[in-house]
From TrEMBL:
Keywords: Ligase. This is Acyl-CoA synthetase. Residues 420-498 form the AMP-binding enzyme C-terminal domain. InterPro entries: AMP-bd_C, AMP-binding_CS, AMP-dep_synth/lig_dom. It comes from Nonomuraea guangzhouensis. Belongs to the ATP-dependent AMP-binding enzyme family. Residues 7-361 form the AMP-dependent synthetase/ligase domain.
Length: 516
């Protein structure tokens, strides 16, 4: 131990450009270190102690990075909040995580203010000293604080919220390890090491997606701890990504297949206008990548495209360029510290090439869904856990996905859970019954479809559809709104009340080779 970890690297080389904001502003490691130290001193004065949590409703860029670096050296849990959520959804996470401080950017002030009652007024802070009603400027917390390392440093963690199939999201909380923060950061480099990613400079990691996603935080944070420069995108754009890759000599990134589809749709001359020779490890996950799309990326970028399958809860697989080309369509084989188990409905292992529920375990790490021991236990099989995906293993131990969780929708790499949407639509007085599921979408993988059984006396049609959608305003993030609503006379249900969703879904997936 002893050569990695942001705080150690920043002391050794304070002039290293550690991050670049979407507007091009560059931040030296020494300045980030000073800011994160002052924040720790200020929050400790507010009474924060190891094991406490902080929440950030902030865009991609330096402010969220400072929150992350402060929490991870003070033994706190840092929860970055999805900025598409509405006030009540944000308030739920702030309250459920038992946050002791809540940081909001001016961009998200409207919903941030709506969530403010979840935490005491003296614990709400506006980053960049923005004028947000009911929030203190962050300088009140940090002004006059020393920029020296705080005493008794101990490793913290991120605690991301993962949507539950039954609606409310749950925080995935791991036990703190009590290590020195830099030593703990060095252990994180195991995962990039699997992909062959090297430490030190010159390396740059491009952040293409919102930082509230677990994988984005993990890969970006670890790249920083390995001495890479983080280059942030605010909103993903295909040509802008190519421009940034050339300008900052990007070597690695974390992407979703939707990005590939948009990149391949660029005109030929645009695609070949930029020098992409620096690319070495372009990693993708979060949704199945169509085989022809992946072949096209290999043809364009060469053998730098890596894939993995994993979950916030831990464990996973890796498909190297060679592994995937030998097993097209796979999401890879198990990590050295992970094991896979495919079982039938009775929990018994199934033969090769037989689809079943995918269970994984990661050696030496436990987790719990915060405040929900039942959910934690329900997803377990001995020391294995599942997120409910269906797949099979081939003779060489390579995993293939057949069906995402029975109901989960994956749109643009984001997990969307129908139960939460159904619960909100069901409240509408003109709705007797509702089913929500994903249907094919060439750009996003899936789009959200709602099927509604109108209440007696309510006429189905575009007017009712518009009225139902309008009722979701302010209660459900727009990314969760159905793109379209179809009507049905009577919902197909079994005598026991179980909805036959497959029956509803099947016609939309006809002619598509996988019913994800």
């Amino acid at each position: 131990m002893g050569t990695l970890g942001f705080w150690r690297l920043a002391q050794a080389d304070p002039d290293w450009i550690a991050s670049v904001d979407p507007d091009g502003t560059e931040h030296r490691a020494g300045d980030l270190l000073a800011r994160s130290n002052r924040l720790v001193h200020g929050l400790r004065e507010l009474g924060l102690k190891p094991g406490d949590g902080i929440c950030g409703l902030v865009p991609n860029g330096v402010d969220g990075l400072v929150l992350y670096l402060a929490a991870l050296q003070a033994g706190w849990y840092y929860t970055p909040i999805n900025w598409h959520l509405t006030g009540p959804e944000i308030a739920y996470i702030v309250a459920d995580s038992e946050a002791q401080a809540f940081f909001v950017d001016a961009r998200y002030a409207v919903e941030g203010v709506r969530a403010a009652e979840a935490i005491a007024a003296e614990r709400r802070f506006a980053v960049q000293d923005a004028d947000i009603p009911g929030f203190r400027p962050i300088s009140e917390l940090t002004a006059g604080q020393p920029d020296t390392a705080p005493p008794d440093r101990t490793a913290g963690l991120t605690m991301h919220y993962t949507s539950g199939t039954t609606g409310k999201p749950k925080g995935v909380r791991r036990p703190l390890n009590g290590l020195d923060p830099d030593d703990a950061a060095e252990m994180l480099s195991f995962l990039p090491g699997l992909f062959g990613i090297t430490r030190g400079r010159p390396n740059a990691h491009l952040i293409t997606s919102p930082n509230y996603h677990t994988a984005v935080t993990q890969f970006g944070g670890t790249a920083l701890h390995m001495g890479h420069t983080l280059v942030y995108m605010d909103k993903w754009d295909a040509e802008e990504m190519l421009r940034l890759c050339e300008k900052y000599q990007v070597t690695n990134s974390h992407m979703v297949p939707t990005h590939f589809k948009r990149l391949l749709a660029l005109p030929e001359e645009t695609r070949h206008k930029y020098d992409l020779s620096s690319l070495k490890w372009m990693i993708h996950a979060a949704a199945p990548c169509p085989v022809p799309v992946k072949w096209a990326m290999f043809e364009w970028w060469g053998d730098c495209v890596y894939e993995y399958y994993a979950a916030t809860e831990g464990g996973g697989t890796l498909a190297t360029p060679e592994g995937w080309k030998a097993h097209p369509g796979t999401v890879g084989s198990a990590w050295p510290i992970s094991e896979l188990l495919i079982v039938d409905d009775a929990g018994e292992p199934v033969p090769t090439r037989t689809p079943g529920t995918i269970y994984m375990k990661m050696l030496g790490t436990g987790f719990e869904y915060k405040g929900d021991p039942e959910k934690t236990a329900a997803n377990r099989l001995k020391e294995y856990f599942t997120v409910g995906d269906i797949g099979y293993l081939d003779e060489d131990g390579f995993l293939y996905l057949c069906d995402r969780k029975a109901d989960m929708i994956i749109s643009g790499g984001a997990n969307i859970y129908p139960a939460e949407i159904e619960n909100e639509i069901m409240i509408h007085p003109k709705v007797a019954d509702v089913a929500v599921f994903g249907i094919p979408d060439d750009d996003w993988g899936e789009q959200i479809k709602a099927i509604v059984e109108p209440a007696p006396g309510s006429a189905p049609g575009p007017e009712l559809a518009a009225e139902i959608l309008a009722s979701l305003e302010g209660r459900l993030a727009r990314m969760k709104w159905p793109r379209s609503i179809d009507f049905i006379e009577e919902m197909p249900r079994e005598p026991n009340g179980k909805l036959l969703k497959r029956k509803l879904r099947a016609p939309y997936w006809e002619g598509h080779d996988r019913a994800i």
